[in-house]
Task: structure prediction
Amino acid sequence: MAMVINEEHKMLKESAQGFLAEFAPVSALRKLRDEGSDIGYSVDLWRQMVDMGWAAILIPEAYGGLEFGHVGMGQIVEQTGRTLTASPLFASAIVGASLINLAGTEAQKTTLLGAIAAGELTTALAVDEKTHHAPHQISMAAVKRGDHYVLNGEKRFVVDGHSADKLLVAARTSGVAGESSGISLFVVDRTASGVAVERTAMVDSRNAANLRFTDVQVPVADLLGEEGTGFAALSAALDIGNAYLAAELLGIAQESFDRTLQYLKERKQFGVLIGSFQALQHRAAHWWSEVELCKSVVLKALQALDSGDAKSPVMVSIAKAKLCEVTELATNEAIQMHGGIGMTDEYEIGFFIKRARPAATLYGGYAYHGDRFAQLCGY
Amino acid sequence: MASGEPIKVSKLEELNVSDLAVFRQETRDWLAENCPPSMRHPVTNSDDACWGGRNFVFKSEEQKQWMERMGARGWTAPTWPTEYGGGGLNKAEAKILKEELSRINARSPLDSFGIWMIGPALLQFGSEALKQQHLPPIVRGEIRWCQGYSEPGAGSDLAGLQSKGVDMGDHFIANGQKVWTSYGDKADWMFCLLRTDPDAKKQMGISLVLFDMQTPGVTPKPIKLISGSSPFCETFLDNVRVEKNQVVGEVNHGWTIAKYLLTHEREMIGGFGLTTAGSDTLGKIAANAVGMEHGRMADTILRAEVLKWEIDAAAFALTAERVTDEVKSGQGVGATSAMLKYYGTELNKRRFETMMKIHGSDAMIWEGAASKGGWMPRTWLRTKGNSIEGGTSEVQLNIIAKNILGLG
Result:
């Protein structure tokens, strides 16, 4: 497949760029933060996104979706990285919809996917239990008792966990931590009895929560797919999630670069533009080169997911690892090259570094994906 | 422009599929008959490459046959026009030829600075007479070329070159010294930059000229590198007669062509980062050397270095692919060769730095059959030149900053 985007994708990219710049720029995130928004995103904005069809892009036509594919959705998410737009797009329309589509029964898909596409349902994936991503290490217990399962345990860093309608919970119905078999997936109401939600205010001013499950009863009908075999779907959904985190990070890397380049062309010291200093030119040129590599790995990961390529996990880990590395460089350089003003809250460049780290950490950072890449390559 | 019309980049012709299928079958049949068996596996040692030229000593009769047969068909330069000895293939056909060659694992019939560098420049900027004279022997592998660019006082600052060509009417008399002439002692002709107007501004007084290395006064002398090999020469020019009709493009306007050639060279060297990588991945090589423990490479610090290199190399290969595809589809910015050169050569240096760590004390062995003549340390040392030759990494970063980022 040629490493280029087609006309349709380009149009979607441009329309997303225009829309987000107008309705959800960085100042919108600042406003949500400063006003202490309960849910952490704008319901009106999400409604507009749904009306444009964004929530339906990954959902098959049979379930009320547009089936437009990952390269298309990736163009939008890349732009949300440039504007740092907060919305349920990632947790519901990407990760949630993908997991339900991969694991769910026909009945579950019909009910849940249509509702996500229509913007009537939001979801949050509850997977990690410790401070580092480790899907094999799930130990949360789900014990079958008659016509329901009983869930006990804790989940951390659940994106949108404090606001989503449904929690998608990975728990263990058999085996021990470290095994991939024995993991089952459940659809749980966030307001179900026994679910304690602690909203965690994060550095990026976005939404996450720690969840505690105490004897939470989940009807058998809300087991997503089959008991004990949830890991494959979970892993595939995490790959999809990571590809989009990489796409968002690409937006962050590019936007922080563009803003810094502009600053190098405006700021004067010693009577000249600081962009005339070779010490800064070379760092900018290196940074730009790294971003060029990032564009390629993100596009390749999205294409691999669209074509069902067996190498998708490798491509996704390459993309996520590379983007973790380069956004660390990018956001650090952005602040350093802006100098003192880059340290101020008033100036927007600081918002990018604050979003970059959580996005990199979610579902595994460089260490996780570098290790996974090496293992997939046999070493 | 006094020289010939520039060759337009041709659009993919609307050939119908059956024509291409016929071409593929004919190509396959011809290769089956004409590609000798020993030419059907990749070159493993750089000494096995075929460079052609007057003085070339073929490693085997089959190597000679392979070059001559492909040359006679114009397939050493598949897309060059047939009137200059080329294959005259359109892009679709050239792609099929490439696929069919790789299908049978055929090695390159001819490595040539003529095909890679001066040939494309002649097609773009050369007079009809120069094209007629020089291109067919390049295609057939009869004449081997070298490049006379750098000088002792003109490295990164190439336009500061001082070798002079004094106008004597129908010819120039050239005096000066060139350095880093690749295979200057083995080449038959040189394409060379001379200062032909000492009074003009730096870039304005330079001409690109061609001359036979056997011309009296031309003396190439090999330079021994830290790697122990001598792929380069210094070339002394001592009252060398250069005919006026051997100037490419206009007199004193050679800098444009020189820059065009440097871009070509950057692309070539940048690509080396991966083409010399061999069949085993760095990860496999490392795992074999240091062993595995609990499903992971035993040395975890080395493993981290290896996987970082592998991820960067994969990202770089995808980028080279993307840049090519964008240019094909008209989306490219086209100015990315500096980035590819910079990143590709830095990657190659990192690769060999890591290889040295993988092989430990074995990697220090300089001589002897067991070490393949010290291949490891010699190759490692040779890669240090990758980020110097063809424009240093620092010069590439300057180009990116200036031409792409607009930083003055």
The first strand of chain B starts at residue 145 and ends at 148. The longest helix of chain B spans residues 300-328. Chain B touches chain A through 45 residues (CB under 8 Å).
